[in-house]
Structure formats: structure tokens, C-alpha cells
Amino acid sequence: MSDGRLKGRRILLGVSGSIAAYKAVEILRRLSDDGAEVRVVLTRNAARFVTALTFSALSSRPVLSDEFSEGGWGAMGHISVTDDLDLAVVAPATVNIIAKMAAGIADDALSTALAAAACPVIVAPAMNDRMYSNPILQRNIETLKATGVRFIEPGSGALACGVHGHGRLADTDRIVAEINALLRPSGALAGANIIVTAGPTREPIDAVRFISNPSSGRMGYAIAAAARDRGANVILVSGPTSLEPPAGVRMMPVTTASEMRTAVLEESRNAHIVIMAAAVSDFRPQHPGSRKIKKTDASLVLHLEATEDILLSLGKNKGGRILVGFAAETDNVLDNAREKMKRKNLDLIVANDVSKPGVGFGAFLNAVTLIDRSGAVSEVSLRNKSAVAGCILDKIEELKTNQGL
Description:
Elements: E1 10-15, H1 21-33, E2 37-42, H2 46-49, H3 52-59, H4 77-80, E3 87-93, H5 95-103, H6 109-116, E4 121-125, H7 129-132, H8 135-146, E5 150-151, E6 155-158, E7 164-168, H9 172-183, E8 193-198, E9 203-204, E10 210-211, H10 218-229, E11 233-238, E12 250-253, H11 257-267, E13 273-276, E14 283-285, E15 304-306, H12 310-316, E16 322-329, H13 333-343, E17 348-353, E18 365-372, E19 377-384, H14 385-402
Parallel strand pairs: 1-2, 1-3, 3-4, 4-5, 8-11, 8-13, 11-12, 13-16, 16-17
Antiparallel strand pairs: 6-7, 9-10, 14-15, 17-18, 18-19
């Protein structure tokens, strides 16, 4: 029995040409039962799997499947179908439609409608496991995430091609839950003020050289986007990266560890949660040059000093905040993480072994271990960093609820 929780919400359901198109029928039914006005847009290939008539009958509305045919939406159907939308959902999303969205291509009913949609967008991919791991697809996904598009990680299981792998459309329950979470944020993080740090810092040697590390910032940016999706007020304090800040997140760019410390300590006065995902440089040159040092004048010795320990400062004046740190280690990962958590008075630490290939710095995937103040340990297996971000926030929500914050 529906509680009408989506009553008055206008949702565009885009369906692309995957065998999983039949599952979109159930998504439509669930959203309609919850009171939403669902407008369906099909690609031509999607209509070969499930007819427009099926979607029209269940939605009680015309279906747009041809940008050159009125289809009940008027001469400019791709525009009118997107009027006053609260959300657009593409499920299932193929490699093709994701590539079109990332490249800004609008050459069919769905891609033109998405180009005109001035609302949040959720994409649920469905495809063969090798197609999903294709680096070009992953690049396109990251491009779209940088513009604020939300992705629902596909599941693992039997695929239509007969193999068992990662790429099947996420369960309907999960897709509907994600839609409700976006349109009706009501979890433990709704309204919370959260600071997330991300990326590396750069400590200057001279006017053109610096000390840094290979952090891409993807983990911190994924956490910021996921916290935003859960209704939090997010401030992203980021070192230099090539990433676009997530839409709806307040961005504070910094360069050095000192600048990051100043920003975090200032903003933390009103923060409920601080998540230090940045890879802050531990050392900096004692006497950086203001001009480029010529090779002929350079010393072979670079004298370093320790940078400010931002988490340690926060831990000494913790108050009621939840503090989350990261431990990127190569040896004795869990022991070092536990020692860091105790020394810096953290509620949760995210440990990862950066010596493993394909995870951590610069990678699209990650595998981490979560350790909380009580000593409880949770393993997060290898997955997209956005999915890892969700697991981290699930744990933070649990801590927040248990602490009555």
C-alpha cells in the first residue's frame, strides 16, 4: 500500500536499449503507486524490448519515443516532457546513452530530453561486465558525476549474455529508495553540516616546483556528492585536482596544508561532521624560494619541516562533532590505522592499503576497512569510489544515531 510519499513529484523515466528495459516497467509502477507523475521517454532500441503502449498504459500518459513525432507531447515534445521536472531517472542506462550524455550529444528522444532537463539526474547503468569496466565508459561516468549526475552502482549476478559478472541493473528496491532519498531526504544526515576535505596539498619548493602526492581527489569528491544526496549541507575543502566540484556543494579551493588547516578550523565551528579524506602533505620545505631556483644554483639537500596536523587539532577540541580520518598505508595497515585513530581522537577511520594495484590514489576503484571507536571493523570490498562513499556514510549515519547527535 502506497503512502503517497511522492505525490506531486514529476519524474522523467528514461529507458534505453538494454534487455533490462523490462525492469523499468516495475520502476514505473512503483513510482506511480507512490503518487509520482511519471513521464516516460524511450530510445528507439528500448521500444524494441518493451513497447511504448505498455508504459503509456501504466503511466496513463503519452510516451515520447520519437523526437520528430508529437506523441501526445506537442511539436516540441523533448522540451514539454521536461517542463517542471523534479527529477530525471535513466534506468536502464546503456554505454551508448551514457556516452551521449557525457559528450552533450542530443540525437534522439531521450538524449534531447535529457539535454533540456533542468533538474537532478540519476543514472542506473546495465550492461555486460566487460563493457562496464571499459575505461572510456568509466571516464564518461566520472565526467557526468562532476556535473552533479548521480549514479546507482550496478549489481553482480547472472547477466543476459550468460556470464556472471558486475553490470546488472540495480534492484528496483534500491533504485526507488535512491529516488526517495533524493526527493525526500530524511536520514540521519539530512540537514547536517558536513566538511569534507579532498585531494592533495602542494608545498612549494620555489616559484615553479612543489612537494605533493598522487591523490586525485575522487574519494573525497564522491563522499561530498553522496552526503549532498542524503540532504546534508556540504562544504568541500579541496586541494588542487582536475575534478569539477559536485553541484550543490560549497567549494573552498586551497593549495597548501596551512591553507587547508585555516579553512577547516574556521568552518568546523558550525560543523556536525568532519571527514578528512584529503591527502595532506606531512612535510614542506623550510625555506621555499619566491623565484625559480636554477639548476646550477640548487643545493642537493632539501630541508623539510612538518606541516600542521589538522585532524590532531580537531581531535583536541572535538566537542560533539564526529571526526573521520583516512589512513593510506603500505605496511601494518590496520595496526597503524588504529594507532592513528586513538592518537587523534577519531570516531571512525578509513584504512586502505595503497600498495595494492588498482586501488587508492588515482584509481577509480577502492577497497577499504572501516574501524570505529568501539573497535568494530567493517570490510568494504573493491568497488567504485561512489559506492565506497555510500558505505562510509552508512557507517557515519550509524554512529550519529548511536551517539544521539
